[in-house]
Amino acid sequence: MTTPPPQGNPFAQGQNPYGQVQQPYGQPQGQAPYPPQGGYPQQPGQPGFPQQGGGAPYAPVPPQQPRRKVSFKTIKNVGIVVIGGGMLIAGYILSQDDAKNAAVGDCLKSASTATASKPRMEVVDCSSSEAEAKVLKKIDGTFTSVTAESECREVSGATRFYAQTGDGDNFLLCMSDV
Q: How confident is the model over 121-172, as pLDDT tens digits?
């Protein structure tokens, strides 16, 4: 019996007539001719692609968000708010010595910010040399200079008066000299 002649191109060299892949010279049998590419270790699954799903040790870690730097503008704005708040608090504390807080028996002096058109009085200690007048009576209400003077004439020992109107606190102080 004779073997049948090879099928296909009779002049092709190096073809294996039995369909088996030959390894290049110098390569051991059973290994791929080139090492795997991509920087990932070879894992079960599709060759050339890393395994998806349960492969948490190789999951990429998202980069940390950059920290926001505090700018000069932010520091300046915070400083302005703090200084403004401090000034409001100081103004409130200083205004506690105003005439509206005066009671019968308190002594007053003309405030340094007083003007002829807008007189201002501040509460002071009666033993102080700054004391100018002593409150004899405080009357709530709105008064003109004529009505204020006639009200204070009825108070024994009153030599002067101070009427405050228009600031939400309307009152009259009848006073004597210290």
A: 888 889 989 899 999 999 988 888 889 889 999 999 999 998 888 767 788 9
**Angle, vertex CA 131, rays to CA 93 and CA 149, nearest 5:** 95
Three-state DSSP state, 159: coil
Per DSSP, the three-state class of 98 is strand
Strands 133-140 and 160-164: unpaired
Strands (E), the chain: 107-110, 121-124, 133-140, 160-164, 171-177
Q: What is the DSSP string of 19-40?
A: -PPPPPTTPPTTS-SS---SSS
Alpha-carbon distance 60 to 127, whole Å?
80
- Residue 174 dihedral angles phi and psi, to the nearest 5°: -95, 125
Q: How many CB atoms lie within 10 A of CB 170?
A: 15
pTM score of the predicted model = 0.46
The encoded tokens of residue 80 equal: 């302005």
Q: How far is 75 from 173, CA to CA, in rounded Å?
A: 47
